[in-house]
C-alpha cells in the first residue's frame, strides 16, 4: 500500500515539474500578494490631494491651510475661487477633501462670542482615504479650537494643560494597519492556494483524459486520494512557512505565541481546505470549472472571515453563518497566536470549532470522493 501511494506521490511531483506554473503560482503568487498588501498597509497614508476655497483670505485662514499641510496627510492641490471647481474635482476623483473657509472666519475667531466654522467636503467614494483625511482635519481643528479658547480666556498656554487621558494599546502598540491586514491576508492566501491546488487535482486528470487510466490501475480509491493529497499538503505547508517567514522579517509581524502550536494548527487547517478542494475537484469536469468554483467559495468565505468587516458587527444570522466557515476560525487562531500570544486556554473554542468542521467536511469529502472514483 505504501509503495503504491509513494509511486502516486512521485507521479504528482513529476507532473508538477512538467506543469511548473502551478507550483510557481502556489509558492510565489501568494507571497507576492502578501508583499504588496503588507507594503501598502505598513506605510502611513499621506499626500492626499486637498483643495481649499478661502473666502476670508486672512492670516487666520492661512493658518488653517498651513496646519493642514504640516500634518503630512495632505498635499495642497489648488486654491480655488468657487464651488464649481470643487465639484468638478470631486466628480473626477482628483481630490480627497475640500475645505471651505467662510468670509467672516477671522472676525469670528477674533470675537469673544464668535463661533468660527469650516465646511469640509470628503470624497466618500474612497472611504479609507476619506476617514484618514477626516481624522487629520479633526486633529487640526481641535488644536486650533483649544488655542482660541486659551486666547479668549487669557490663559497662559505654558501652564494650561486642559483635559488629558492616559492611553495604552495592547497587542498592536503602533496601531499599525499592517499588523491587522497582513496576518489576515496570510490566512486567506493559504486557503486560496490549497483550495485551488486540491481542486485541480482530479479535474486536471479528467480534462487531460488520464483519469480513466488512473482508475483502472491497481490502486484503491483511498490510495489515489492519499497520493493526490500528500503533494498538496507538502506544498501548502511549505508555502505557509515561506509566507510566515516573509511577513515576520519584512513587516515585523510578531510571533508572540507558540510557533509549534501554530504549525500544528496550520496543518490541521490545511486538511480542512484540502477536503473542500477534493470535493470541488471531483465535481468539476474541467480545470476552468474548478477555478470558478474555488473563486466562488473563496470569496464567500472571505466575506465571513472578519477580514473585510468585523464579524461582531454583522447581523446575527451572518454571525451564526460565520461559525461554519473554517477560515473565520483560522484567522482568529492566526491573529491570536501571532499578535496576542494566545494559547489553547484562550483559543480552544476556535480550535474545537475547526476540529468539528474538519471532521464533518473531511468525512463527507472522503465518502463523496471515494464514491465518485469507485
* Shape call: elongated
Number of helices: 14
Question: Structurally, how many domains make up the residues?
Answer: 2
Q: What is the terminal separation in angstroms?
A: 18 Å
Strand tally, please? 4
Sheet with most strands: strand arrangement: 2-1-3-4
Cα radius of gyration in angstroms: 28 Å
**Poorly predicted parts:** none
Structural class label: mainly alpha
Percentage of residues in helical conformation: 55-70%
Can you summarize the main beta sheet?
4 strands, mixed
Kindly report the average pLDDT value: 84
Compressed to H and E, one letter per element, the order equals HHEHEHEHEHHHHHHHHH
Fraction in beta strands: 5-15%
Architecture overview:
The protein is mainly α and 374 residues long. It has two domains: 2-41 and 174-373, no CATH class; 44-153, abc type-2 transporter like domain (abc type-2 transporter like fold). Helix content is 68%, strand content 6%. The chain contains 14 helices and four strands. It has helices at 2-18, 21-42, 59-70, 83-91, 105-110, 127-153, 178-208, 211-216, 221-251, 259-283, 287-303, 316-322, 326-340, 344-373, and strands at residues 48-54, 74-79, 97-101, 119-122. A four-stranded mixed β-sheet has the order 2-1-3-4, sandwiched between helices. α3 links the parallel β1 and β2 (74-79). α10 packs parallel to α14 (344-373). It is elongated and about 95 Å long. It starts with a helix and ends with a helix. The relative contact order is 0.11. The mean pLDDT is 84.
Amino acid at each position: 500500500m505504501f509503495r503504491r501511494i509513494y509511486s502516486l506521490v512521485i507521479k504528482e511531483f513529476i507532473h508538477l515539474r512538467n506543469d511548473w506554473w502551478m507550483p510557481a503560482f502556489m509558492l510565489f503568487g501568494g507571497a507576492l500578494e502578501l508583499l504588496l498588501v503588507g507594503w501598502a498597509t505598513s506605510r502611513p497614508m499621506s499626500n492626499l490631494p486637498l483643495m481649499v476655497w478661502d473666502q476670508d483670505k486672512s492670516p487666520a485662514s492661512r493658518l488653517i491651510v498651513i496646519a493642514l499641510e504640516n500634518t503630512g496627510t495632505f498635499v495642497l492641490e489648488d486654491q480655488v475661487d468657487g464651488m464649481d471647481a470643487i465639484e468638478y474635482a470631486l466628480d473626477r476623483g482628483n481630490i480627497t477633501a475640500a475645505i471651505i473657509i467662510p468670509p467672516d472666519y477671522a472676525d469670528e475667531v477674533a470675537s469673544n462670542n464668535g463661533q468660527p466654522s469650516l465646511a469640509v467636503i470628503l470624497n466618500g467614494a474612497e472611504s479609507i482615504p476619506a476617514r484618514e483625511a477626516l481624522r487629520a482635519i479633526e486633529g487640526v481643528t481641535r488644536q486650533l479650537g483649544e488655542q482660541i479658547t486659551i486666547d479668549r480666556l487669557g490663559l497662559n498656554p505654558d501652564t494650561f494643560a486642559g483635559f488629558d487621558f492616559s492611553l495604552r494599546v495592547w497587542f498592536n502598540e503602533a496601531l499599525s494597519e499592517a499588523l491587522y491586514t497582513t496576518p489576515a491576508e496570510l490566512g486567506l492566501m493559504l486557503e486560496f492556494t490549497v483550495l485551488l491546488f486540491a481542486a485541480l487535482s482530479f479535474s486536471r486528470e479528467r480534462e487531460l483524459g488520464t483519469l480513466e487510466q488512473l482508475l483502472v490501475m491497481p490502486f484503491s480509491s483511498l490510495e489515489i486520494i492519499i497520493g493526490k493529497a500528500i503533494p498538496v499538503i507538502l506544498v501548502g505547508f511549505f508555502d505557509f512557512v515561506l509566507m510566515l517567514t516573509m511577513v515576520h522579517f519584512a513587516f515585523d509581524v510578531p510571533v508572540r505565541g507558540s510557533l509549534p502550536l501554530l504549525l500544528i494548527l496550520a496543518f490541521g487547517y490545511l486538511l480542512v481546505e484540502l477536503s473542500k478542494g477534493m470535493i470541488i475537484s471531483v465535481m468539476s469536469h474541467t480545470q476552468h470549472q474548478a477555478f470558478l468554483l474555488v473563486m466562488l467559495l473563496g470569496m464567500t468565505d472571505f466575506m465571513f472571515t472578519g477580514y473585510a468587516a468585523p464579524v461582531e458587527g454583522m447581523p446575527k444570522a451572518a454571525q451564526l453563518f460565520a461559525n461554519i466557515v473554517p477560515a473565520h476560525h483560522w484567522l482568529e487562531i492566526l491573529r491570536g497566536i501571532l499578535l496576542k500570544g494566545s494559547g489553547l486556554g484562550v483559543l480552544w473554542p476556535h480550535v474545537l470549532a475547526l476540529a468539528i468542521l474538519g471532521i464533518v467536511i473531511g468525512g463527507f469529502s472522503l465518502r463523496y470522493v471515494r464514491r465518485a472514483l469507485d
